[in-house]
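Quick one, tokens below:
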């Protein structure tokens, strides 16, 4: 089968397609003949049948084209939706990584801040000569008026211990 034969065959198929479509959708002449009594009625019925079948044919074609366009739009929307979903996941992953990096930086800064605070505390302790166990007295450590002894609580001469009360000193 040569190239020319294929071209002729495709041409014949292209020409025969509309003829087949017209036969498929054209009204049957036996129906028209049954409905009409004379030739003029047959012509009128033929025109009505042709209009009806043509209207049906174009309506079907319109439906098919609309459904095809709707499917194209649906596929396009689905592709865009899946593309956007991928972008959202990528952005979320990127944001998560940035947040982790920022948290690590904050953690490092806090540890350096803590270290410098400890160094400062050590320097202050060295200068004041106190150890880590002793603490700086605060306001609550200041004694108030109620802690001052009255004249009744001061020891008298009779309360003082003498030589006889000392154990090591016995003659």
């Amino acid at each position: 089968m040569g190239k020319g034969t294929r071209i002729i065959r495709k041409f014949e198929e292209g020409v025969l397609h509309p003829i087949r479509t017209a036969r498929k959708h054209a009204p049957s002449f036996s129906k028209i003949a049954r409905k009409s009594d004379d030739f003029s009625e047959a012509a009128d019925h033929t025109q009505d049948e042709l209009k009806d079948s043509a209207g049906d044919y174009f309506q079907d074609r319109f439906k098919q084209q609309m459904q095809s366009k709707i499917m194209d739009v649906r596929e396009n929307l689905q592709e865009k939706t899946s593309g956007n979903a991928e972008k959202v996941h990528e952005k979320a992953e990127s944001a998560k990584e940035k947040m982790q990096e920022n948290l690590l930086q904050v953690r490092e800064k806090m540890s350096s801040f803590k270290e410098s605070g400890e160094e400062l505390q050590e320097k202050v302790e060295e200068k004041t000569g106190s150890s880590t166990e002793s603490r700086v007295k605060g306001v609550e450590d200041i004694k108030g008026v109620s802690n001052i002894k009255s004249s009744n609580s001061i020891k008298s001469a009779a309360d003082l211990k003498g030589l006889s009360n000392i154990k090591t000193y016995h003659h």
